[in-house]
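RECORD TYPE: inverse folding
INPUT: structure tokens
STRUCTURE:
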């Protein structure tokens, strides 16, 4: 993509009133636009990051048998009435202009919706197990919308729901999903700790969270330095400096950001919607369910909180908006412009995603913008490097640069 055609621009100053690093850098870099408290638009650069995250999630969900679908954002009152969750305080109620009372809510969860759908198709043990997921906008009436994309009123979420003949089969799949989540976070460049947590409006039993250690995190966890067994402070009886109940290693207290969670649902929803199956003995039983969530914007924000320096974002390669940032420096002569076009075309032909800074601005501004945006490889072409038939390449993570030929440049980028 040519940066001259990108309608957004980077800004030098932090947005007013923002405290969190992700909010400052994502807004300054032109990744997101804050429309209201807790409500953001994803701009072209930010949407590319979200798409990268979504692609990783889809691959891992499909690999464990997840079937992608898409459910409505408007959820009728009858669904939440069936489980007693209409009055849960996190929903946004919706009514038409001429209606006296709201009969819909903006979807903050979809257990009820999918359970009713499943009840129309599931009748036998041979129909189970199955798992379905969606990537969709969720809405929560969050009274403390803050910290950029970490706590919002509207956000993108992947929610997976699984359906089973027994608690034993559910427990087996629960561990499968936990393994898939670990792969997702690792592929996004994040170290997530599997953490025992409390229930909530989704389930009354204990759940598990995936927590990334970060000083800005709103959660507090106790984690073993040896085996990484962890518990959320909301339910934990562990103490900082104490002994791990699993391996006797030392426990430490850490601030963290929750990037995913998994919930055992039991038969709460299947009973509410009469979702039953006939077992091998010909008897009716209620389906056992599980729910599993990942916030895409929160994952994006967490990566920014973890990977940044005093100049800007340092994206993990797997979720960066582009793989290389090509900068043309100095007076753009005919020869320099031709060499830049040739490099841009050849890189893109090799399947390398390139942001090509062809703008007529100062070298200093280009370098500052490149550091702020944080693309993994910065490639510079100037009259000086052109005279040597070389390109200057520097990793965003490193200070040193080196001169390489175009062929060497392609090999370096594609091999990393």
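DESIGNED SEQUENCE:
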């Amino acid at each position: 993509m040519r940066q001259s055609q990108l309608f957004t621009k980077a800004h030098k100053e932090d947005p007013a009133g923002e405290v969190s690093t992700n909010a400052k850098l994502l807004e300054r870099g032109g990744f997101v636009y804050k429309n209201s408290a807790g409500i953001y638009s994803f701009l072209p650069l930010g949407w590319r990051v979200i798409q990268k995250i979504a692609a990783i999630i889809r691959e891992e969900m499909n690999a464990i048998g997840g079937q992608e679908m898409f459910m409505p954002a408007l959820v009728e009152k009858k669904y939440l009435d069936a489980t007693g969750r209409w009055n849960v305080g996190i929903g946004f109620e919706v009514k038409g202009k001429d209606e006296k009372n709201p009969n819909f809510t903006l979807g903050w969860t979809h257990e009820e919706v999918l359970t009713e759908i499943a009840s129309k198709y599931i009748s036998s043990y041979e129909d189970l197990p199955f798992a379905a997921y969606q990537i969709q906008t969720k809405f929560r009436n969050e009274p403390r919308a803050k910290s950029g994309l970490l706590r919002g009123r509207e956000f993108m979420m992947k929610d997976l729901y699984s359906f089973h003949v027994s608690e034993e089969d559910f427990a087996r799949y629960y561990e499968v999903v936990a393994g898939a989540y670990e792969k997702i976070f690792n592929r996004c460049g994040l170290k997530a700790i599997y953490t025992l947590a409390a229930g909530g409006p989704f389930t009354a039993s204990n759940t598990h969270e995936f927590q990334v250690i970060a000083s800005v995190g709103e959660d507090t966890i106790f984690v073993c330095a040896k085996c990484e067994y962890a518990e959320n402070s909301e339910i934990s009886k562990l103490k900082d400096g104490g002994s791990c109940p699993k391996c006797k290693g030392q426990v430490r207290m850490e601030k963290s950001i929750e990037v995913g969670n998994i919930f055992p649902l039991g038969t709460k929803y299947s009973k509410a919607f009469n979702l039953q199956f006939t077992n091998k003995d010909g008897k009716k039983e209620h389906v056992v369910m599980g729910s599993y969530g990942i916030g895409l914007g929160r994952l994006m924000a967490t990566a920014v909180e973890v990977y940044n320096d005093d100049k800007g974002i340092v994206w993990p390669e797997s979720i960066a908006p582009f793989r290389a940032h090509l900068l043309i420096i100095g007076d753009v002569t005919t020869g320099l412009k031709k060499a830049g076009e040739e490099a841009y075309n050849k890189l893109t032909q090799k399947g390398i995603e390139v942001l090509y800074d062809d703008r007529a601005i100062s070298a200093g501004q280009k370098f500052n913008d490149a550091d702020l945006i944080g693309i993994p490889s910065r490639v510079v072409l100037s009259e000086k490097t052109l005279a040597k038939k070389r390109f200057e390449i520097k990793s965003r993570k490193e200070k040193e640069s080196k001169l390489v030929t175009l062929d060497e440049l392609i090999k370096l980028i594609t091999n990393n």
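NOTES: The radius of gyration is 25 Å.
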